[in-house]
Design brief:
Blueprint: H1 2-22, H2 29-47, H3 55-74, H4 82-109, H5 117-157
């Protein structure tokens, strides 16, 4: 999935370009170039045989992502609700554990798309609670101690 890797890197560069533009350290050209690279990534994928890459879905996702980012930027100087701040703290752990947990859930329950809606909602609620709990646990037991160890090492090296 080379195209997806290029798209992820382009999104990261777009964030950097936006920050530099906002801090008046750069112009809008790098922002525009990275935005175009992100937008055309699935077209490159289709040319390379990745027939399942759907540009319309990709562009819709990008649009919704940009809207979410714009709302976040517009509200960035406001107080963040405590739950959202907590989600931000555990977000890296959430990122790391959600996929293995999702694979385990599917292995355990099978395909629930044909199950009744109440069952789907109950499983979704239970899974959300489990993944939030697991993410908080890995944040507290792995990520925070590693951050403290890194800070001690950095202080010792200075």
């Amino acid at each position: 999935m080379t195209w997806f890797g290029v798209a992820v890197v382009a999104v990261m560069f777009a964030g950097t370009a936006l920050r530099r533009w906002e801090d008046r350290e750069g112009g809008l050209l790098p922002v525009a170039v990275t935005a175009v690279l992100v937008a055309i990534a699935p077209l490159w994928a289709r040319q390379n045989g990745w027939w399942w890459a759907q540009p319309d879905v990709w562009l819709t996702t990008l649009g919704l992502t940009a809207l979410t980012f714009a709302v976040g930027m517009a509200l960035r100087h406001r107080r963040v609700p405590r739950f959202l701040a907590w989600l931000g703290l555990i977000s890296y752990s959430l990122y790391l554990v959600h996929h293995p947990m999702l694979k385990y859930l599917v292995a355990l329950t099978g395909d629930l798309r044909r199950a009744s809606l109440p069952l789907q909602l109950a499983v979704a609620a239970a899974f959300t609670a489990a993944i939030l709990a697991a993410s908080w646990l890995t944040y507290r037991s792995i990520e925070q101690p590693a951050q403290r160890a890194g800070a001690r090492l950095r202080a010792a090296l200075q």
